[in-house]
Structures are given as structure tokens and as C-alpha cells.
Amino acid sequence: MSLTKRDKERQLRELTQIVTGIRLFNKECGKGGEGIDNLPSILNEAIPSATMNIENELNSTRLFISRYTALIERQNAELLEEPEPDMLRQAVINCRQHEAFLKVLLNDVVVATDQVNTLERDLRSVLIQLQNTIQSKTAVPTNQVYPKFISLAKIWTGFQDEMVLLSVISNIQANLEPFTRSHKEVLQDSILQPLLTGLILRTDEERIAETSGLEGRVEHAPHFKNLEFLFPETTRNFAQLPLQYKASVDSASQSTTDSSCQVILW
Length: 266
Hints:
Blueprint: H1 5-29, H2 39-78, H3 85-134, H4 142-176, H5 181-186, H6 189-196, H7 204-211, E1 227-230, E2 254-255, E3 262-265
């Protein structure tokens, strides 16, 4: 009886998985599996390296954000025009966008870490089951071992997928770099250092701490009748709101459905 194309493909796929599982089991037993890379070991080295690279770039980007934000605050307070205010604002936007992308990549690496840990547990479990089933037997029914060989192959495919994912993440991180180069070239250290003298560079966490609580709240003046102020401590799902420029007062206004009212995210 002839098989359909789909059935033939399914059988070939299962046969490939069985052969892969047998080779992986033989490699574990030290009796074969030549040419198979130790993917769990490679991933356990690559993931911390990828995490460190992204975190280092995040820290660098956040330093630029702190510097540019401090300069913008000085310009607003002292009415300075150097460097060009719009250029500084564009630099902050660029850095914030870069920070957002890096945080997404870092989260993907964290998810990959959990996935690799799960795959390693599954791998050990299936290998133990196979060893207990086969032991020193010369013959074992195929219905007892073939499903486990297939499971072994699927787990190994999972490791391969994580290798591909890490490669993609590294490529994305590298491809983001040219988009951050312009502000570094225009706002060089030789220009910024004299302007930063005497300024305190604060992180986002420090700014939030300074403006949290009643003493850090903005006073609702009578002429703000068409504005609604949202505070992190009292607004549900505040972290999920799409804040522009991290919700600075002059740039994070968003129109509600009522065009006569604006919301200020503070």
C-alpha cells in the first residue's frame, strides 16, 4: 500500500529523530556521537556572555541619558542655548529608544536562560529513563525506546533553537549600534565635560525617589483645570502606560478621548 506524501514525510521525520536520539544516547554513554557539539555547555557559556554584553551597553546608554537629562535641566533653569536644546532632546530620545530595545533583548536572554534550564532537566530525565530501560540488555522492544529517542531528538532541537535565538539577539544588538553613533559624534566629551562640571547625574530610580511622596508632587494650580495628573503610586498599571521620554512634564502629555482634557504623566 503506497503512502501519501505527508505520511512519507512524517515517517522520514520520525526516522531522523530516532537516529538522532540514538546518536545522542551513544554520545552520553561514550560509545559514539562523534561530531555532535555539546550544545548545553556552549549555551551555558554563551548566555552569561550575551547577558553581560547587553547589560554593559545598557549601563553605557543610561549614563548618556543621565548626562543629557542633567544638561537639559540646567538649560531650562539657566536659559542656556549651548549645546542646541533640540539636539539634546533628540539625543535623549535616541538613547531612550536604544535603552528600550536593549531591555527587550535582555528579557529575551532571560527567557532563553529559563528555557535552556528546562531543556537540561528534560535531557537528564530522558537519558536516565533510557539507561534504566536499556541497561545491559542485548534487545529491547522498539515501542519502549523509540519514543524516548524521539523525545531526546526534540529536546536537542530545542537546544539548537536557543543557539539560533542567541545568534539573532547578538546580531540585532550589533545592528543597533550605528543608530546610536550620531549623538556620540555630535555631543563629544570635549564639548560636554565643561558643561557637566558641578552637575549631579541622577539615575531614573533616583529621580523617581526624589519625586515620590507628597513632598515631591506637583502643585495643582487653579489654571490646570484641563489637566489630569497621574502618579505611579495611585495609577493602576502605571508601568504599562506608553510613556514618551519617560514621562517628563513638558513632553509626556497625551490627549484623552475628550479633546478638551490632557493627561500629565508625572
